[in-house]
Structures
1.
Amino acid sequence: MRTTESGGRHRRRFNRIVPAAAAVLALLGGGFFAVTSYAGETGTDTPTGEVVKPPPGATTATGTEGPSASPRIIGGSNSAASWMVQLVYDDPEYGSYFVCGGTLVAPNKVLTAAHCLHDEFGNRQDWGRYGRVAVGTSVSVTQEHSGTFVDVTRSWVRDTYDPDTFTNDIALLTLAKPVAQTTLELARPSDSALYAAGTKATAYGWGLTSSDEDTAEIAAQLQKVTLPLNSDAACAENLDPFFTPGGSMICAGQLGTGDDSTGKTTCPGDSGGPLVVNNKVVGVVSWGISMGKQVCNVAGTYEAFTKVSSYESKVRPRIDDTDLSRNGKADLFVRAASGGKGYVKESTGNGFAARKSMTGSWSAYNLVLQTDLNRDGYQDFIIRRRSDGAVFWRHRTASSATYKDTKIASDWSTRKFTVAPGDVTGDRFPDLLSVTSGGTLYVYPGNGDGTFGARITAGKGYQVYNSLRGHGDFTGDGRTDLIARGSGGKVYLLKGTGKASALFEKGLQVRTWDGYNAFAAPGDVTGDGKADFVARTPGGTLYLYPGTGKASGEIFATRIKIGTGYQQYNIFG
């Protein structure tokens, strides 16, 4: 293989050192791309044109063994894509610098590569403290432009990410506020057709536009290039021994030509950016091969990407969450039977912390459901007024931290169930479900802004259940599911199909629970990417059932006792 012949080396796309290739070191006289004047949300500007001292190790990559950072698009064209963002790290010692690209997959969520959030030694960086993203511009942050900075509040990296092999090279950033730009959807496990060999995919990025490290320059304008997807067998043969077949990686592009006038490929600096098919992100720019002074477009080689559909079930709960405290784990809303006060019980990972009071009035309602209809990262609620059955969307206003009630239905007092499980139709926007007294299931397709499309009849016979709850994916297939209970305490998994006309498969019995009188499905309480469930006994003992991701009788792990005294609450979100 070329990585072991003629001095070639396995090349990582774009690390904290941007990139760790001699071409870029010579370009700026340092180890990364400094950020130029840039009006940001923080109210401060970065030094104009300043190239500060490179971080330790920045000048040592060339000629070393093993992976080295590398960014670029060769043979591409200028582009504008409102869902593209640039990751910038404000190092307290070395200043601000561009790190990677990323994709908005929700108004406050950015998909990127795990290696983008680590330094050159493989150490995780503090993106919640020092990270920002540039949105609303196709111009590189190394140029003067009119984009906007938004702070990063937290980051998630796939826990089995390996910086040596680049397996599980995927991460998600949560922004401090939602942005108005459009978003892209993640490819799901059911989207296998999008990965067929020969499919034309488009990669985006601000990486190097030359493969020669002596002449390489970062793109001033966002670039895109169309690349054919290749089969796993071809990827494994071409990129042996670095390519990992079996689902975590894909490769794309024509064979490298060694000549930039004929090559079409990604390059150093494009790391973290998307590979797009039919408006879905199928891949994340991850790594490639460099040889000598040629940092990309090495003759006879392909480029490697993280396969997004393999990680969709891990990423999805962190996009469509019920996270009141915004710590990455689903929290639980409870309403006191006496006085009607609302409280949040923040997740600790294997339970819930002491309750905290929620602002606003909750006593006039007989239904409260946790959701995030506009995907702004702030918890919303669906509430139903007891007096007339009117249903409202209680949501945080864009201008302040206060909540506003928007009416979405007039009289649902006779509705047997109302559920806010997330996206059930497969269009990435959270939906609303309701069951009539006669057992007809309706879906109200969400528009992503708190409004809904015309209702669709999605099933019948739901009158046989006495409980219907759900939030997220219980089976790990990327589709939203429900948990229902019928006579005799029989509990059923209603597996999601993603099809609005027939949302769920026939119920599969997975448990018998006749010893509980209240349930909640807050989402991913444990933070492992699997939807969990909560149940309460008549005596007031609350249990957490951690999800396993299995569509069988083993759908939940051994229950965890949360505590007693929960009989004082008569509504669980």
2.
Amino acid sequence: MITTYKIDNKPEECSVCFNDYDDNQLRPRNLPCGHTFCSQCIDNAIKNGQLSCPSCRAEHTATASTQFPISYAVEAFVRKLKNIQLTTEEAVPAKPYEGPARGISKTLRSLVQEQKSIISSLITSCEEVLSQLGEYRGQLGDWKTHHLQLQDRLYALVEQNKSAMKLLELEDTSVVDMTPQGEEGKTQLQAMLGSLDTVNTPQEVGTTIDTADGCKMKVEDWLRKCQELFPDVNTVHTSVKVQETIREALEMTTTETGATADPVHLGDSASSIMNKVKEITGQIPQKQLTVEDLRRMREPVKRLVEAGRVVAVQEDQDGRRSARITLQDGQLYLHPLLRQPTPADAYTLQESEVVGLLDPSCTLAFLDLGWAGSTRGRVTIRLTPDTPLARQFVLLCTGQRGPTYRNTKLFGVVDKGQPGERVRGGDYESNDGEGGAALLPDLQEQYWESDRAGAVCSRYGPGGPKSAQFAIITRDHQDGLQWPRCIGDVVSGLDVVRAAVNHSNITEVTVVDCGVVLPR
């Protein structure tokens, strides 16, 4: 562990070793807590995969300094500082200003000032581009380091492959050595069969049987050795694992290199060098992720979603709420808005824009059911057509109005084991069937009826005080009976609902999560 060091007024120095930053072992790197130190000091401070920030004591997980981004801003500042010092040292004292030259007209003086302004602007542009070139050079250095690291890993794979091949060669040699003895034993046994067919006297029988017994013992001993020696567990296990590892690496490489990338248009040539680099590499500036990026789901956005770094947010008078956006089996899911901290490195989208992707005439919602301490499965419901009760169901799955079905309980089963069996839930207020007030003012509409298992219906009428409650039919009706006020049907996960019905206590079944499916 390293001691906490006082930050001084020399930002060009590492505050741990007091050495100036450079482009090699002393490159400045930013920790997640925001403090900057040189690569060498970070490597020295890492113990058992943990790093304690020398300034604020924040704990970070790392095995090498290369896991933290280079502070290109510090590098650019150091380069500019060195240029300023060099210019100051080499500068020739300027002559005192003696005022405008006599005999020069106002027009000429104006041209001189214009030229000076142009030159000053060009100097500023040069400084900016030089700074960008320095930052770009730092990025190139990072990439070269990464290539060397990958190269080392490839060499390690090659060495593992060589070791596996040596084991296979030794095993093959052992098999070759054992084979002649078995072939010889087989030949002798075949000869014994012929001899036993031709014996004519008791003496010949005894002699032949004794010889056959000796031959049998040798062959049985050979068989036992083969069973004991082959296969060599270490050889086979090592060979299979190395093959799998290399095959996966090659398949990943083939996938990446064989993929047809969309053409990259660098746009205006005036765009900064690093912005062009980010555009080529697919990096997305923190504040420039759009709903369209989410819909197209290209690889950089996909990686962000999979890492949990894309959230939908909603601001109101009580503060900010955020909703997770997840990717599962190629499908995007929007979870309910909650009052929870937004990750510092998250890319945020407005909840209203994300919900705007939904097709109002056919929305897929989901309920994750769980009991006995674990989530048992996801129930996906198609809500159609565009009716007030269906819109209310979406609001309670997304939490846009505040209340949500998340953490509510199923509180009853009607006609259990009988035709028309159905489970009840949706009381977001009291969780016992006594609450579930409407979120929309007018829920009157012409709703359809169903007698089929999987239908999702409003348990109470649109004008009732508990219209947010719902019922899911788990067994078909009979005798022409129809369940009214249907707002959707289960498209997947009906088996999860039936398993919940068969649980010993339905009130232990909870909607552990909910939300909507985002179309792509």
3.
Amino acid sequence: MMSSRNRNNLPNNLAQLQNLIKRDPESYREEFLQQWRHFQSNLEIFKLDPSKPSEVVSDISMFIAQVGGCYEAEITSFPIDVVNLLAHHYSVMCPELRMTMCKALMLLRNKNLVSPLEVLELFFKLLRAKDKLLRKTLYSHIVTDVKNINAKHKNNKVNTVLQNYMFSMLNESHSIAAKTSLDIMIELYRRNVWNDVKTVNVIVTACYSKITKVMVAALKFFLGSDTPEEAKDSDSESEDEELKAKKLMTASQVSKKTGKKARKLEKALSLLRKSKMKQKPVSFNFSAIHLINDPQGFAEKLFKQVEHSADRFEVKLMVLNLIARLVGLHELILLNYYPFLQRFLQPHQREVTKLLMFAAQSAHEMVPPDAIEPVLMTIANNFVSERNSNEVMAVGLNGIREICSRCPLAMTPDLLQDLVQYKNAKNKTVMMAARSLMQLYRNVDPTLLHKKDRGKPVESPSTAVSKNMKKEFAAVDAPSFVPGADLLIDHVNVDDDEDIKEGSRDEWLTDEDDRDSDGSGEWIDVSHSEDDHDNVNDDKEDSEKEHDNIEGDKKKAEMVSLTRILTDEDFKKIQEKSITKQMDGKSRKRKSTTLGSQHRERDELVDLSNIENVHKKMRHDKESRLATVLAGREGREKFSKPKSKRQNENASTTNKEKLKHKPFMMISHSSKSRAKGKKSFREKQVALRDALLKREGRGRNNKKK
């Protein structure tokens, strides 16, 4: 038992009293009630001047919050008093006391002694306080508390009230509170707590905010570029630790077993188990854009906003990027967007590759080709010109290719044929970009190309003609089978199907060099010999057989698609068999695609690297030559003329070497004599002329005498 002397000292030692109460609450009820009355009296005094700090109120508040779970009936008014105090005086309170009162409420909330709505609404209000540490603490608690509320099941009542409250905060003029509330909603969406349609459409309204920070945060959310750097660093560190653990396990299998190594191995195994138990955050993969209620209205408002915006160029880029994604993913019609974007498509424009990516992202098959065609002409005129550098030309060609891959009808035959001429450019970057554009239209619409650029058909003539027909605007091509389903025919009983035929699938290949044409793109009649006539008949029979085989494969794919549900294992088998078929070189001279591969969906977003796909620099430019020279000098002596070595090291020096050490006056006369013998042919002519003139003058003088 505690002595009376020590018991009398408990009111002054709250830490000891807290420990004792948690052990035996009933024995120390009187001491707690004494502290409770002391808190109420000091609280009334504090309300008279809330701007002054009060250490007594701070200490007793934390004490009551710690042991309040033992006396719930006695402290029913404590949460209400603290909430009212903070709600009315938070702007003038001492920061330390305000933080302590908030932490006391957090303790009560964790013990479920106060309703979540009372605390969370107060904390949202406290986000207006000019205290960065307090806002950071409140942010962490709100996210964690809402996550715990929805851990077992969705608490729609609490979620609805909080979402409405946060929606009202986004419309406030206080920038810090609006930005923090938006960050909370984004974080809850990432943690799959508030990943519903309402949350996404509340964040949509933040994109219209007059506060730039709020608008940028909302734009980053929809663009998917706001992944915290800390998470990336932690993921990389955990991967490194997991790799080290695996190496340690491998080494333990071949090294000598010791106690120290056994402990390290056990630690490595536990680390691996923990890493497997960790759940990686689910990537939303731009699903927020798909949850927008009115994407057409959203895109139109954003475009109207950016037209009259005075924000920085980086902010305008983000808005243009979001508009492009909305138009591309939802296949919207926003015709004014393309002329606006067309003004920025200049080689000297800052971030021009991103602008080209926006143009490609906003193109789709439902846009009228007349709206995209001026964009292609602008890129061709400003980028694909010999007055520009090779990198600029390549970027322009890549941008045109990406736009045409999504809206192929926007290309005209004349423009395409002019651009394809760069396939023979000396620069590899330009050449590869032009050939990629040519290859795109070989698969989409070869009729736009010159006959010599169309390549070799890989299917039967009838199939090729039907495939290469120009697709009409807004036409829908719905497949009737799963691509590659015919490869699963071994796993389906087809004995009863008489229409399915087995046979080899030799491709119909022709050599474009052996084709006879008049240069105008039309076939002309050429006489054949009897052997040639037989070969033509054989080719025709092979093509007909090939056509029958393709039709049979199509029937197989349709039957498999209609009679069974394909699982993940089936798709893996399709992938494996298609790779095996492509790698089989015995019966195929050329790789072919799986049946129905033209129906595969394209990627949702345009990759910027596809436009910036500039090949490595020329091997013999100045920088590469200088780097090669410097690399060759490493580990080598300083460059100098190699000294000739004598056969006998003890032999005397030569006369030529002795001349180097003689005084100049001793050898000057010999150098003059050697210089005479080194006269050029012109100097000898002049000297001979002067000598003859001098001799002739002397002869005349002698005759006069």
4.
Amino acid sequence: MFGGLAKSLFGSSNDRYVKSLKPLVAKIAAFEPEMQAMTDEQLAAQTVKFREQLDQGATLDSLIPEAFATVREAAKRVLGQRHYDVQMIGGIVLHRGEIAEMRTGEGKTLVATLATYLNALPGKGVHVVTVNDYLASRDAATMGRVYGFLGMTTGTIIPNLDDAQRKAAYAADITYGTNNEFGFDYLRDNMKYERSSMVQRPFNYAIVDEVDSILIDEARTPLIISGPTDDKSELYIGVDAIVKQLTADDYEKDEKQKSIILTEDGTERAERLLEAAGLLQGENLYDFENTQVVHHLNQALRANMMFKRDTDYIVKDGKVIIIDEFTGRMMDGRRWSEGLHQAVEAKEGVNIEPENQTMASITFQNYFRMYPKISGMTGTAATEAGEFYDIYKINVVTIPTNVPIARVDEEDEFYKNTQDKFLAIAKKIRDHAAKGQPVLVGTVSIEKSELLSEFLTQEGVPHKVLNARYHEMEAHIVAQAGRLSAVTIATNMAGRGTDIQLGGNLEFRMLDEHPELVEGTPEYEAAATRIRAEIIEEKQKVLEAGGLFVLGTERHESRRIDNQLRGRSGRQGDPGLSRFYLSLDDDLLRIFGPDTLFAKMMRNNIEDGEAIGSKWLTKAIETAQKKVEARNYDIRKQVVEYDDVMNDQRKVIYEQ
């Protein structure tokens, strides 16, 4: 109680910290008239001046006001975008090596230019880390214009570059790339035979975009460089055929721990089947000679009983491709280790690629802890602030929005089963789209988005589906999700990196409707002017219809990903609406939900098709999510503790 009172009188510690940065923001603003008066050449010459000051002993902190004012003016001239004051606060937070939590649509990409430019002045290189290659190339091209105007060089690290191109990109003042590319380059460098063929420079400073996705969601999977071993595809196919003959009584599976084991009867059945297939040596499955068979039997069990097609992986062009459980994207080229991928390939009857052995590996936690200074930005980090501090020693600072948020977040609605829930969702979407309101629907798997797509087709609602199958199209689909009556179904909307603007997006409409026109020509300008007018008119209609409606088809394991979905609506003070629809069949409720008594009450007391909503239920869901988050944190902590031991060895060997 006293805490609440003190908070209302003095503000939270976050509010006080943000307030303490206001005088610095005022100093930056004081330089604005001086910057506006400069010619382009004079503004570009600022970089040389700052570098001379650093050589004479000035610190980066002392350069903040003038350097930030320089970038603000450069961005205004080159991109036509002027940083807001709240973006300046974000820039200071990034420069101080902290995480800036900023809502979707507040312009994180532009905020990064401030800290990037300032920290690139000493010439030791700044790495800007993004979640996918498209964003790395897009941001490097757009923001590179600002850096180029100020006389700095920008490089991009994307797949399929040769060593010379990589070396050149790392030698630039600012380098954009994905976490995977940076990490793999580090491992490859340390497998080279001579120093001159290494591509990376010593680490200096990194800004991580979508920091929660990279440093938390991805942190459970280490980066591994591997080499081939013997081909054992016959064994995989033989074991797979045996596992397919087992029944549900032969094994016990625990979905919480993602583990599966044979019962005593199941072990006996497996022994007889293996013996008949000639795969068993001696009588007993657990004899020393059969260690390998037991291992492959366990992996085949997991592949067949725990891993679902179109949820955990998809089969494309005769290959098994993993789907990232957090972003719903295809992870091309990534493979499960310890024979699991081969077991899934055997299950699906596609070509089995031989197993690999590990040559070098590192976790993202240990890779990013090698930077002397690291900061990050995302729309959702506060729920994981403890973990950021424990593992990376970084604080999270919540940056206020430029315009107050006008989105309405409604209570969750519960249904008895998935069928009822999807029927209700399809009708709800039809009603909202009919009055012109755009709807963005978040699902947790490809399977669910395709199921919902069928329901919408029956209701006669035109819609677009965005999932791992079509991720080449994703930026184009997302960019137009705010248009009149648009219905977009997306698997895990996290970190898509494209802004949903109400009424549509000029840049992507030009690409879609007039791919033949070149920017800067009179024809291009004429078409752009016409489309711009259409967008303004359409935006007005969307605003009258209530802005973007975000609809979640179930709760995700992590509160952060639900918040990311909600945050797609109500950007820059636009009106908006969000609501989640749940049923007793949802994975979160089924595995981690409140005990069965609650489920029995719900089953017996709710009529088919009837919905209930209550604060108590919403609270119960949050408790379940907190449980899962805590468990996932423990898993990541364990990964890092194991890797710490290896890390000491790795450092000694790599230093030699």
